[in-house]
Specification:
Keywords: Iron, Metal-binding, Oxidoreductase
Strand order of the largest sheet: 6-7-15-12-19-10-9-8
CATH architecture of one domain: Sandwich
Distance between the termini: 40 Å
Family: Belongs to the iron/ascorbate-dependent oxidoreductase family.
Bound molecules: 2-oxoglutaric acid, fe (ii) ion
Strand content: 15-25%
Protein name: Fe2OG dioxygenase domain-containing protein
InterPro entries: DIOX_N (IPR026992), IPNS-like_FE2OG_OXY (IPR044861), IPNS-like_sf (IPR027443), Oxoglu/Fe-dep_dioxygenase_dom (IPR005123), Plant_2OG-oxidoreductases (IPR050295)
Structural class: alpha+beta
GO molecular function: metal ion binding; oxidoreductase activity
Number of strands: 19
Helix content: 25-40%
Amino acid sequence: MRSPHTAKVPNHGHGVEFSGRSLETVLSGRPDHQVIISESRELRTRHTAASSQLSSAIYLSLQSPDDRTRVVAGIPMIPSRALSIPWSPPCKRSIGIVVVVVDRPVPSCFIPHLFDRSLYIHLPLYLSLVRPGQSLISSSLLLRRPYTEPSAQMADCMQEWPEPVVRVQALAQSGLSSIPRCYVKPPSDRPMAPPAAASAAELVSDVSIPVIDLGELLAGGSNVVAITEAVAAACREWGFFQVVNHGVRPELMRAAREAWRGFFRRPLAEKQRYANSPRTYEGYGSRLGVQKGAVLDWGDYFFLHLAPEAAKSPAKFWPANPGDCKEVSEEYGREVVRLCEVVMRVLSVSLGLDEEHLHRAFGGAACGATLRANYYPRCPQPDLTLGLSAHSDPGVLTVLLADEHVRGLQVRRGGSGQWVTVQPVRDAFIVNVGDQIQLDSYRAVHARALHVRARTPAARWPNGYCYSRRPTPAALDAMRTHAWAYPKSRKHVPAPVHGQFIDRPSAPILSNSIYKSVEHRVVVNAKEERISLALFYNPKGDVPISPAPELVAAADGPALYPPMTFDEYRLFVRKKGAMGKAQIEALKGQASSPEN
Ligand SMILES: O=C(O)CCC(=O)C(=O)O
Ligand SMILES: [Fe+2]
């Protein structure tokens, strides 16, 4: 064992110098610890092998003289994604110094998302952002304050909108004949044919998402297998479907829609009382994402947390007018959540799992639900903008109550990239699969792949995983996504956590190619305003969702998949705003790396 105060600090290969003197400065408050910063072979290999989207990473270990409080962290940096660092339990009693080497600027507000929340609780964590070529300590880049307050860190950059908020409704009502530049989409993102221009004939001939009658399923009829297969097929082929006879009373649906229509008809000054901030998004909003200079959408919204009880938006966020808005929305929320649970059961069964499997995996009774009432005013130039840019929904499922008169939702159809306008059926809900289903299926399927492949003696791939000599493209994606520098020893495989997606290695698993969240967007029109209510059914916010430890252990290698909580993912999405499927793609290590 090395003596305290010494540090073995090789140049890590990207031009970053760590001088021994500087490290002693770092350690001056902790003479009983030593820092070893070393380049990991795996990371270097990975850096070479993977795409240029991966930036630098560093391996850091911190040891106490008795060798008991050893911390090892490898940090692959992809600035555009939220990461959790696998952190072995003993570190919770030790000091942490984490060095993040980046080769592009990363806003400091991003840093909290890099780390497992437990770090803030247990560690006085010091961070440094270093660009290649810069010296670590002498340039005083080390942040000397402990990172103990992630929420405050977050608040720094999520406190206010980056530009003064303009209500789209107010703009529309001002009678302008052309839309301000900040709403004009680049040509590639514009709707080709605004729905206002579409003739009735075109509407009828639209290919449409499947419509599924849940009546018999809810009544326990004999047609359950066929209904289950219809839902599964719709999820496979479209990621979207409509449901009728879904068990939610049509009167309640109409009351909820009218309550929110009523809210948006209130005077602007009254609505402004509920103006939201990017911190929680609760309240009256007019943009998604905090990117300064972003092209905005032609729509306003009202966002609320409905469930679980503990996360419910406090009374101050609820509109006082219309007087029944809160009561109706709450009842509506409860009913739609029940419907989500039914769909989850159907999806579980369609995968050969026990019917409560998905519900349990996403947090059971503690699953979350949020409501966004979307309001799209009339638009003088609907061909230049969108009511809601292309995006996929971050949660598990979305249940949308669309406007009964005005179309606007478009769904991206499979490989063709064609946008298909949804024709809402009366009293139906539009249901779509969210990113969590895709993410979990993604992790699950690759855990399975690992399980199988680990038995093949093979080339060593970054992080020490054994794959067959030619990893499949999907396996490569998985490695880029989840190539965590877990310590190699089994004992560092994270402890089991509640909410595992797969509960046994032999369980049938979701497949990446089966259920995918699908991109959708909203087009606006010159003649009519449009309203929709989107209920997002989400996993419990803090449950790390990852494959079962048994599965990882069975692979005879280190854990491949870091847990990521929904809260972490959602924050990431909230900061970016709608950006097609780039968020989820970023998690696969495939996207370009925009600021988070
Ligand atoms: O308004 C719509 O039709 C779709 C809304 C939507 O996609 C959303 O709120 O995420
Ligand atoms: Fe959506």
